[in-house]
Amino acid sequence: SDTTSADALFRQRAARVIPGGMWGHLNAARLPAGYPQFFRRGDGSTLWDVDGRRYIDFMCAWGPNYLGYRHPEIEAAAASQAAEGDCLNGPGEALVELAELFTSMIPAADWVQFQKNGTDATTTCLTIARAATGRKKVLVARGAYHGAVPWCSPSVLGVTAEDRANLVTYEFNDPESVRLAAEAAKGDIAAIVVSAFKHDFGKDQQLPLPEFARLLREICDREGAALVIDEVRAGLRLNLGGSWEDLGVRPDLSGWSKAIANGYPLAAVTGADWLRGAAAQVFVTGSFWCGAVAMAAGIATLKVARRDDVVAHLERLGTRLRDGLDLQAEKAGLRLRQSGPVQMPLVMFEDDPDFHKGEVFCLAMLEQGIYFHPKHNMFLCAAHTEADIDRAVAASEIAFAALDPST
Ligand code: PMP
């Protein structure tokens, strides 16, 4: 690859002063060579890397880009608050208005607390559930991602067995495994944590089966435990009132982040009345948790989401993308695996255990200015247009042709 590109030069400088050049999920070393590490600009559904290459972006900053990069109304709300101040001795007025909006929009939310990152929110849910119940055990789905601190990090490096001693695992969508986990922890269950849908890295996505969702609710009711939905990734993309509203199953606690302030750093825990006392008593805080700019952005984001029926837009375009890709793949003699909700596309190939096809395909998309991910679910945003989708589908015709169906 081009060693004189701006991206290559930034990588060389970063490699000297940042361990590994970049940490965590945004390390471009996890993507095929050819993907940029550094970006300069975003606007609507378009992204530019530091070399000025332009992409129609289907990763949406891994979720936070919900309405479009630099959405004018969100930027105006954030700028107006920034002109007054952001991090002060306590929260701004925006805190109360944002809390009112959350509790009016989400039926399961009787109250809300705000944090910064998704991990803050999921971890706070566990703290509140344990404080309220006086119990230790938490049921979690095997392989689910809930954040990057010892209790939930996908890596065991730097983590002790004691950090996870009180977790009991079950399989998503497998009622029997949930019954067994609940039996094993009986009498000491503080919470069952579940993702809004199964979106494990490199796996087919799965929406929750109604009987699975209802069983989690039943067990929590029977045991006096808290049902915690991790909405960090799915939140506001499936249903503005909560991802399980259509199933008729309501959580006791939910953790939110990513989309809720359109890229400004904000997370939230929403909860039911019976957990209000515990939420008031636990000591949870952070130097930046009351930043008023992100809260102003959050208020504007929720209002636009509701006004513009963003979920319907994402569903419509997601269906157009899924159908278009399926058609092109079929024409090329390839079989795709597209799973989960259309507004969070995951495009994988049949007979592709090492993701080789996916990587060749995504690189061929990248070369045509379409930013796809070969293994992780992607995201649509309100700024995506039919023209964006049609350009991606047109590019896929060429990218599929780059794959030899006989291999
Ligand atoms: N839960 C889920 C489902 C997530 O997708 C993520 C982030 N990818 C987190 C929790 C953690 O959020 P954050 O990275 O903001 O701490």
UniProtKB/TrEMBL annotation:
Q: Which cofactor does it need?
A: pyridoxal 5'-phosphate
UniProt keyword annotation of Kinase present: no
Entry's Gene Ontology molecular function annotations: pyridoxal phosphate binding; transaminase activity
Keywords recorded for this protein, A-Z: Pyridoxal phosphate
Q: Which Pfam families match?
A: Aminotran_3
The record ties this protein, via SUPFAM superfamilies, to:
PLP-dependent transferases
What domain of life does the native source organism fall in? Bacteria
Q: Which InterPro entries does the record associate with it?
A: Aminotrans_3 (IPR005814), PyrdxlP-dep_Trfase (IPR015424), PyrdxlP-dep_Trfase_major (IPR015421), PyrdxlP-dep_Trfase_small (IPR015422)
Q: Which Gene3D superfamilies match?
A: Aspartate Aminotransferase, domain 1, Type I PLP-dependent aspartate aminotransferase-like (Major domain)
- Which family, according to the similarity comment? Belongs to the class-III pyridoxal-phosphate-dependent aminotransferase family.
The name this protein carries in UniProt is Glutamate-1-semialdehyde 2,1-aminomutase
The source organism is Mesorhizobium tianshanense
Q: What is the lineage of its organism?
A: Bacteria, Pseudomonadati, Pseudomonadota, Alphaproteobacteria, Hyphomicrobiales
